[in-house]
Amino acid sequence: MEPAKYNYQDALELLETIRRGARPENPAIASRANQNPMTDKLEGLKGVPSLEGMKEWLETLGHSNANVNNLNIIHVAGTKGKGSTCTFTRNFLHAHSIRTGFPRKIGTYTGPSVQCIRERIQIDDRPVSKDMFTKYFFEDKKHDEGLRKPRYLQFLALLAFHTFIREGVDVAIFEVHHGGEFDATNVIEQPIVTGITSLGLDHVAQLGSTLEDIAWHKAGIFKSSAPAFSVPQESGPREIMRERAEEKGIVLEFVPTDNRLPTNYTVLDIPVQRLNCSLALKLAEEFLRIKVPDHKISGEDISNGVKNFSLAGRFEVVDDGKSEWFVDMAHNVLSLKQAAEWFAKNTDEDVVSLSLAIAQNQEIPCRSYNLWRALLENKAEPGNVIFTTASCKKQKITSIQQDIFAPETLNQTLCDTYSREWKQADPRDIVSSDPTIEKAVELAMKMGVSEDGVQAFVIGCPHMVGEVLNILRPRPSLQSSTCYFVGIAGIGTRFR
């Protein structure tokens, strides 16, 4: 069937068939790890490296290394803040473009998506259209003709490369999925500039169990042809990153908070976001220095870039006219503390505070437990708490879970368990639960009516946050893809 006969919904349904439950086992990565000085820290890593096959699949699409390099790529790795850094970088360049005409067209590839899969692939300051996504999606599906096919994130990265090449962008900003050295996006051989955001322990099964392991992988995006920048890091990871930069013959520069950033925007109210923005400003300025030396980011560009920052589910505030909803995809302890700090700085002590919090992959509900325990540690006053779960069209229940919970009772069981344990941890709080996000949000809204408005803190995994945002501000033009995750959430209290 010709691509023209397919539609956007066909693309979404086919994309879901690419999802897999777990990384395929392949001991080959261990032998690759033995070729670098971090051998002792990389033993036991599992899975087929995501980088494998990317070059060949791009060639199947008709794209050479030169085609990729001509995208003038800004490559960003890190644990937290990658999406914000990429978006700030895009905003600075877009503001500069409006003022000067360059860069004419900007591509941005970030993840995860919250309300719509097309959020991952943007041109200028908006997701690609349904028609564009559909057209390039089915061109990308040429890989089905081969024996080996891309996995989900590999496919999306290929789709981004393909879209940006076909659309002739002047600069492409690529966010690493996870890691760096073996990540699918590291098929980029000659970026213009690279950057690394804050580091923390993530994907330890693939990347290793120490920050030094993580740093080694993230610094894998460094290339001999490209200046490298990072936000300040702890001493151990910092030295590993410097060593990797030296291997490439480049100097790694650590970027402090830039005093040129405005102070009157809530998105920059916490130090980590100011660091992300400072790194982004450095990346944008370095890009322009290399490509058009006579162009400079102006004070007006900086102000407009920050003012127009919008990234679904990241330090986002939704005002429904009655209550304020502070939304962030905090789903690890580090990001949770940062989000709680942001919420605390922007709430009114005279207004009842709530928090809709903590969604997580149902295969590891214990991680949600750790997260809401961290939420308790950052709570300053007693308040209201509501636990809920992310409702999904399709759920993958592991065989272990089927032995413990029947699928129809899993959500309510987790809600009840967490509600009981929270109440035991802080008896002062009013704790309730509902297994569906719709009803939990409705309950929060009712609280807002009875209390003359609330300030709600919404945190959790992208799927849970996406469902909340679809309720708070429905976007009928965006068609979300099916999600496979279940999470735990709560509505809480005022935070320090």
From TrEMBL:
EC number(s) per entry: 6.3.2.17
Keyword entries, A-Z: ATP-binding, Ligase, Magnesium, Metal-binding, Nucleotide-binding, One-carbon metabolism
Keyword Nucleotide-binding: yes
Metabolic or biological pathway: Cofactor biosynthesis; tetrahydrofolylpolyglutamate biosynthesis
Any one annotated GO CC term: mitochondrion
Reactions mediated catalytically: (6S)-5,6,7,8-tetrahydrofolyl-(gamma-L-Glu)(n) + L-glutamate + ATP = (6S)-5,6,7,8-tetrahydrofolyl-(gamma-L-Glu)(n+1) + ADP + phosphate + H(+)
Biological process terms in GO annotation: one-carbon metabolic process
Record-level Gene Ontology MF annotations: ATP binding; metal ion binding; tetrahydrofolylpolyglutamate synthase activity
Top-level taxonomic group: Eukaryota
Keyword match Ligase: yes
Family: Belongs to the folylpolyglutamate synthase family.
NCBIfam families (UniProt xref): folC
This protein's name: tetrahydrofolate synthase
